[in-house]
Amino acid sequence: MMYTCPSCNLGSLKPTHSTYVRWWNARLVTVPDFAAWCCDFCGYTRYDVAALAQINLLLGPDEETLAQSSFSYRRKAEGPGEQGPHRWSS
After folding, report:
1. pLDDT above 50 for 25
2. Residue burial 11-26, b: 16+ Cβ < 10 Å; e: rest
3. What's this model's pTM, rounded to 2 decimal places?
4. % residues pLDDT > 70 (the chain)
5. How far apart are alpha carbons 22 and 70 in whole angstroms?
6. Of the residues 2, 4, 23, 29, which has the fewest C-beta atoms closer than 10 A?
7. Does 87 have pLDDT greater than 50?
8. Taking residues 50-69, what's their average pLDDT?
């Protein structure tokens, strides 16, 4: 299945691997070789929805997630998610 890049609308998202980084409560969690999707044109990257579901199942909700609205919706079981790799400015 082809996924058009939401950033540039020119390229397509291809499966790849990236390092997952997340603050969970007061701890920094990193997962190497995490499933992601990367645009072959602009390099935009998103985490895979199924992989995110597994991490959320293992770690559970954190304080930030609990503070957000309780509105829930269904996502596709596969494909690129809406959350991309975290980047810090230097």
Report:
1. yes
2. bebeeeebebebebee
3. 0.65
4. 66
5. 21
6. 2
7. no
8. 74
Question: How far apart are the C-alpha atoms of 2 and 68, rounded to whole Å?
Answer: 31
With CA atoms as reference, report the closest residue to 18 among 41, 43, 42, 1: 43
Which tokens hold the place of 90? 């230097």
16, 36 Cβ separation under 8 angstroms: yes
9's tokens = 């609308």
Using alpha carbons, select from 47, 56, 32 the residue that is nearest to residue 81: 47
Set out the domains of the chain in order of their start, with CATH numbers: 1-80 (3.10.20)
64 three-state secondary structure: helix
